[in-house]
Design a protein that fits this description.
It contains ten helices and eight strands. It is of the alpha+beta class and 321 residues long. Bound molecules: 2-acetamido-2-deoxy-beta-D-glucopyranose (NAG) (3 copies). Keywords: Signal.
């Protein structure tokens, strides 16, 4: 093993030992939690020029086909991975993290964090790292005073944008198109099987693996205030439209994490365009700009960003109230 690899492994291990969140973490305010997570993210940066690209083995990846394994992605509400079952993120393995704020426009009629806004952590990752295909995905953890966070997962297309290296070349969305590739279709089937064991009420389960629903995020404000039942107004689909000003050359030769790190603090990263119902989203009518995701810090690619931070998947189906 060449020396740098040994060094890197040691670094990762040492940094993860330091990475436990304090026991009273969850009870703190949203902004305090943002600072605590940011402190962890900054403690374990990868050394310059040594960003890891080697993902999980085929054997580890095969766990994705096991619904009880995948179930952990939905049922664990923590902001940090469960250390006892420490594992790589099998997809979205490598990314880069920063502080960001969800800032709704004053005219947003959606509820929960789409009305209150929320401080949080953004994670930009590649679904898989492959030389000839950029597959952008974006996760955002909206922090809530005193209780678990509301998380968002968004992907462009599981099949990626090919040779275009610009991470910000395409929209990402909570509703993702079907993959045209057989291995990913198999994963989608396993993911759907997982959804079926999430709740005993089929009407509460997300429709399918292509929909990462936004009902839970529309049910709670960043202050912890719960939106009364019957008053939740949740979008079925959100397109996150990247700010063209932060895009970069489709021919960039550097790693996406290096290019993203050049984004100026304070930039608008994405504008959120919401569609209330599935019918509207599919007809591409009624889309309304409801807010922005704004960058509050520089981006850091770190061991904690890849192996510590955890963004659970929402498990409750979209509903019209
Ligand atoms: C809401 O406000 C934003 C920002 O000011 C604007 O871009 C958007 O068009 C407005 N939406 C509606 C429905 O007026
Ligand atoms: C990106 O999303 C916006 C808002 O929904 C939409 O108008 C636009 O067509 C999308 N871009 C592409 C290339 O699909
Ligand atoms: C990227 O490379 C292609 C092929 O070499 C070239 O046609 C295109 O002009 C380049 N684009 C930019 C923005 O540099």
């Amino acid at each position: 093993m060449p020396l740098p690899t040994i060094f890197l492994l040691a670094l990762v291990q040492i940094s993860l030992v330091l990475a436990y969140l304090p026991p009273n973490y969850e009870k703190q305010t949203a902004s305090a939690k943002q600072e605590i997570l940011w402190g962890q993210l900054r403690q374990s940066p990868y050394p310059a020029g040594r960003l890891p690209v080697e993902g999980p083995s085929a054997l580890q990846a095969a766990q994705l086909l096991v619904p009880t394994f995948l179930k952990g992605s939905f049922n664990c509400a923590n902001d940090e991975m469960d250390y006892d079952s420490r594992k790589w993120k099998i997809i979205h393995t490598f990314g880069t993290c920063a502080k960001a704020t969800l800032r709704p426009f004053a005219n947003s009629t959606y509820t929960g964090v789409f009305k209150s806004g929320a401080p949080g952590i953004i994670r930009l990752s590649a679904v898989r790292i492959v030389a000839d295909n950029m597959i952008p995905s974006m996760g955002f953890k909206a922090l809530i005073d005193g209780v678990p966070s509301a998380n968002f997962h968004n992907v462009f297309s599981p099949d990626g944008q090919g040779l275009n290296k610009n991470f910000f070349a395409n929209n990402v969305s909570n509703i993702i198109p079907d993959s045209q590739q057989t291995p990913l279709q198999v994963v989608a089937v396993a993911f759907t099987a997982t959804l079926r064991i999430l709740s005993i009420w089929p009407s509460e389960q997300p429709e399918d693996a292509n929909s990462m629903p936004l009902y839970e995020q529309s049910s709670i404000e960043t202050s912890g205030k719960v939106v009364p039942k019957g008053k939740v107004y949740a979008p079925w689909r959100i397109d996150y439209v990247p700010n063209p000003a932060i895009g970069y050359s489709p021919n960039a030769t550097e790693d996406f994490r290096v290019k993203i790190a050049e984004t100026p603090v304070g930039s608008v990263l994405y504008t959120l365009v919401a569609y209330w119902t599935r019918a509207q989203a599919e007809a591409k009518t009624g889309g309304v700009a409801i807010g922005e995701l704004v960058l509050d810090s520089n981006f850091i690619a770190s061991a904690y960003c890849d192996q510590g931070l955890f963004l659970n998947h929402a498990s409750k189906r979209w509903q019209k109230e």
